[in-house]
Task: structure prediction
Amino acid sequence: MHVSDLPPAVDLDSLYDPPAERIQKAVLDRLVDFHLEYLKVATFFCLATGSSERGLDASPRGGPPGFVRALDERTVAFADWPGNNRIESMRNLVQDDRLGMVFLFPGLEIFLRINGRGRISTAPELLAQLREGPRTPKTATVVRIDEVLLHCGKAINRARLWDEGSRLDRSTLPTVGRMVTELARRDGTSPEAGEAQIAQIDAHYDHAVRHDLY
Result:
């Protein structure tokens, strides 16, 4: 079916029951004690942003437990660390400050979600709070919370995300080196690469992704 063949609108209220009252009451506009307990152990979240110029974006963020700091009951902050330098999330926030954060907790069947407004900060005192060892970030994102809620983990069990048997065999998928060289071949910047070159790229990536974190 082509997108153009889809009906113009769907009456969602006829398909889905309204959320239970306890679900509605669980959506707060500030952090409470149990949110803070989860933030203290959080090591990973996905950040959603968007802008009229650049469209939508979702990107991963990770760090040691507590890398997202609660500055007060309505505000959290996190550092930006080296990635691919596309910095799409920050570019979006300059134009449109709305964002969403979805936290995953390894081994747990629950999510924490924060929706709010973000701004980029270079305040030295904040950057000092977000240091990792000797490293100080160039910028931090400060989030003013509009909504915070805990979300059930059914998606985790549908995916069997934490099951040992769900771990993928790296050898069954194209490696980074193979994908990089294929992209270079497709855009005409490089001829067909040999296995030695692919292995070299793979080795460089494997080292960088584990050790060049800050």
Summary: The beta strands are 44-51, 55-62, 69-72, 75-79, 98-104, 110-121, 140-152. The chain is about 30% helix and 25% strand. The helical segments are 12-15, 21-25, 33-41, 88-95, 124-129, 154-159, 176-186, 195-211.
